[in-house]
Amino acid sequence: MITNKDRLRSFRRSACLRLCKELRLARQELILVHGAGSFGHIIAEKADLSKGVQKGDMEKLRLISQIHRDVLSLNAKVLGCMGKNRMRGFSLPPYSIATFLSGRIEDFCPGKFERVISNGYVPVTFGDVVPDREMTFSICSGDMLMVELARHFEPEKAIFVADVDGVYDRDPRKYSRARFIDVVSPENIASISAGTRKKDVTGAMRAKLAKMTEIARYCENCMILNGNVEGRLEDAIEGRDVLSTRVMA
Questions:
Q1: Which CATH number fits domain 1-153: 3.30.70.1230, 3.40.640.10, 3.40.1160.10, 3.30.470.10?
Q2: Which residues, 6+ apart, have CB-to-CB distance to 119 below 8 Å?
Q3: In whole angstroms, what is the distance from residue 171 CA to residue 188 CA?
Q4: Whole-angstrom Cα distance, residue 203 to residue 187?
Q5: Crossing angle of the two packed helices 142-153 and 205-216, in degrees rounded to 10
């Protein structure tokens, strides 16, 4: 949503500025999680980093370093857009808040988020490559982090912002007869196409929805909506009805 996923390191600054403006109007406490987009996925997919890295594989280790620098650059751009909207964002990279084993979060530290919030800031975390006790390095997606955050904070809302109106049975960019699905639950996930325009190293739509059903166990409203439509994120935050897909546990 805030990057063009087809172009390496392509940041959609105007979209990010507008979304931050809508977030700023929220009267609730916020935690912001953003993905790596084209600052992470393109290189990670090319190098097949989802399977981890051997300690002696210098080429993949070089790419790990490049991805990490790129994602930190994206995070700085997001914080800059927040600042332009008079939001006080504070970055919490995933390696600083969790430990990882075999591509999974082993231990999570919610206390850092609590301290940032208590000091009047908005915590910002993101998808990244992270040290892994079994795989040397692995990929931590924003979805993984949102599951842990939902488990601890039990938020009123968990809002996923995409570039489509919600979930369809097939990719609506490719299939004109794709059917919109207003409610997703574990019972109908199998009816949704697992494919995307390009393979996503953190998992395709079905995997994302599986994470969202986990999140839905801990919050009242878990939804995915179109962030390209001005005002839709603000309306959802304020509890107004918006076109979206609601995900149920």
A1: 3.40.1160.10
A2: 90
A3: 16
A4: 19
A5: 10
Q: Where are the alpha helices (DSSP H) in the chain?
A: 13-24, 41-46, 58-84, 111-118, 142-153, 205-216, 232-237
> Which 3 state secondary structure label does DSSP give 236?
helix
Among the four given CATH numbers 2.60.120.10, 2.40.280.10, 3.90.550.10, 3.40.1160.10, the one describing domain 156-249: 3.40.1160.10
Q: What is the pLDDT along the chain (249 residues), one digit of tens a residue?
A: 899 988 999 999 999 999 999 999 888 899 999 999 999 999 998 888 888 888 889 999 999 999 999 999 999 999 999 999 999 999 999 999 999 999 999 999 999 999 999 999 999 999 999 999 999 999 999 999 999 999 999 999 999 999 999 999 888 888 888 899 999 998 888 777 654 444 554 446 778 899 999 999 999 999 999 999 999 999 999 999 999 999 999
128 close to 68: Cβ distance less than 8 angstroms:
yes
**CB neighbour class for 211 (10 Å; exposed up to 12, middle 13-18, buried from 19):** buried
How crowded is the C-beta side of 130, counted as CA atoms within 13 Å? 29
C-alpha 100/C-alpha 130 separation (Å) is: 7
Nearest to 144 by CA among 111, 99, 187, 197: 99
